[in-house]
Amino acid sequence: MNYRESVRSLAEDIRHRTDEELVALLELRPDLARPQPADLTALAARASTRASTARAVDHLDLPHLAALQACAITGTTDPAAIAPLLGMEASGAAALLDDLTTAALLWRSSEGPVLSRTVGDVLGPHPAGLGPSAQALGHALPEDLPAAIGRLTPQEHRVLERIARHGPTAALPADPDGRAGQAVAALVDAGLVLAPDHQHILLPREVGLLVRGGRILDPLDESPESARTLDLDDVDRAATASATEVVALVDELLDRVEDLRPRVLRSGGLAVRDLRALAGRVDLDEASAAFLLELALGAGLLDDDHALEPTWRLTTVLDEWRSLPPAGRWAGLTGPWLRSLRASVVPAPEDGGRVNALSEGMVWPPVRALRRELLDILAALPEGTSPDAADVLERLRHRRPRRMPHGADEAVTALLKEGEQLGVTGRGALGSVGRLLLTDEVAASHLLETLVPEPVDRLLLQADLTAVVPGTPVPELAALLRRSARLESRGGASVHRFTETSLRSALDSGWSADELLESLARFSASPVPQPLDYLVRDVARRHGQLRVGTAGSYLRSDDSTHLEALLTHRDLSHLQLRQLAPTVLVSPVGPTVLLESLREVGAAPALEGSGGVVATKPAAPRITPRRERPVTEVAPEPSTEVLTRLREGEARAELQRNAPDDGAPTIPALDPASSSALLREAAADRLPVWLGVTDAVGSTRRVIFHPITLDGGRVIGEVDGQPQVFSLHRITGVVVEG
């Protein structure tokens, strides 16, 4: 372009860009439009601030970051010069430089692209971990550098490679006579490293590059040997099975929560003992149980009741969730999981303590972006590809080399496991439902609905007191089995066992023997087996022979001999039973304690209501879940609309600049970050600027200022040849002269 002959800064480059180029810049760096800059000068000033530049550099993938580092290392933006460092052809390097120029990390001058000054500050003194050149250090390298490296012992070569990969500086070993100390001494003697002081060693750039194979970018293996390629139908079947199982597990675990009613710790969360008890009842490990509880918490099915003695309780949302088909229940768990800031694995606290499940310590903000990016990585692979955790982690580092959170290895492994448990992936590969989940959660739910078999309303009752359900039971059948049987095995067909304890739970809920048998017969494909019929009626016959009331509590029975035996029972002495009548005993303890104590010694009492009839066990009341503030992502304003207003602002600024006046331009209002960026650029180019400065009483004056340096929120320079210092917060705007 002809304008390049006059371009001498990033600001001028941006002012001369076409609409298409500016839209591309705003798309790559949306922070530049928040808030809306007044004109293109303000946009350029914001683009050159350290905060915005750091954000842009942090969001580069590894090839673009390496290209930027190569420019800083070589001091040139010639594609032919940086291509060897990147291990690619010059055309590939040129494409990377074009992208960096579009993002305003390079700007176009008459000599070609130039690295922005702020980029050098963000990259630091040692880009890509390479030190200064031997010439800059005043150090003489061996004449035959490859031969000198080839003469090293294996131990010395390992130490040299470690410094080259993680350097360029390293601390001298504490023990100079140890293996590492001797290796470092040999490297210094060979002239491959130098010791600038008595505590550190420094690796010259030439040595570091040679050890790295002459490049700073290692190619990504697009088809790693560890990755398996599976049939997509197999992946979908495995993912669907996991999706239906996780719904069943959450359902079962919530039943156990209702029975146990675990307390909320003072510090928040669930006690380790309660978590272990819940995991044991559902036959899961503690980590899996904690993840399922987090899913329930995120879906609003479980919450803290905030009572004086708070406990974890089921919410009013649970009944509505249970009435949905399996795909709808899965969507109710997976949608909140995808947007959640909570993680099943979080970095250990600084005090080394334990983070309890369901506590606020499980909130880890980086996990939301990390979770979605992992799914994007899996979606970018060919369908059916099942990479291992190490390969996914390597691809993640390739996509976001400067934004890897602490403990990323453990977090990535945990998130991949969560995706497998939820059915987002199947056998390690992203399934059709998981791929659709990234763009349309409703469509993903509908697709899963076509893959999940229809819920069944039939069961097979067997003579060994078990029931087999060949699929996912309908809600009514699931509720019946939850209360009357114990789950023995899961899978494509679940097996439930009827026991005295499970049947007693059904009777405690208000069922009679006839009602229970009638319900089982309605769902059974065959008549109720005789052993099950006998067991139900026998438990029902004994259920309620003893009746507990309140007095504290009382115990009555028509069998006075039975009461006399209980009165003298050694294991019931703590109840302090007293006989009021041949058929009535009373105790100062409550009815619940009396009921459980009698059952522990083999009795089968029933709870009696105030009317003298058997009362049902009171169900735990539901609580209303707290209304969490929804996690909203503010979408950036369309770049075309931002550009329209920028062009209008630039036209107004141009009119003001061309208006006849006393020679002083109109100074637009700028934020301190933009003002400091313009002043830094002017100081580097030794250009004068017009400053708008407010004094102690709030009046504003305009001065011609020659900036020299910025330090500690102040700019130091000269006005009319006299030293002058201004605080950045008193500067209302800056216009560069020339």
Any key phrases for this structure?
738 residues; alpha+beta; Arc Repressor Mutant, subunit A; 6 domains; five-stranded antiparallel sheet
β-sheet strand percentage = 5-15%
Note the gap between the termini: 21 Å
What global shape is seen? Answer: elongated
**Strand numbers in spatial order across the main sheet:** 17-18-16-15-19
Largest sheet: 5 strands, mixed
Helix/strand class: alpha+beta
Number of helices: 31
Mean pLDDT: 83
Please bin the fraction of helical residues: 40-55%
Walkthrough of the structure:
There is one protein chain. This protein has 31 helices and 24 strands. It is of the alpha+beta class. The chain has 6 domains: 2-129, no CATH class; 134-211, Arc Repressor Mutant, subunit A (Orthogonal Bundle); 228-451, no CATH class; 460-529, no CATH class; 544-607, no CATH class; 660-736, SH3 type barrels. A 5-stranded mixed sheet has the order 17-18-16-15-19, with helices on one face. A 5-stranded antiparallel sheet has the order 23-22-21-20-24. Helix 6 packs across helix 7. Mean pLDDT is 83; it is low at 1-6.
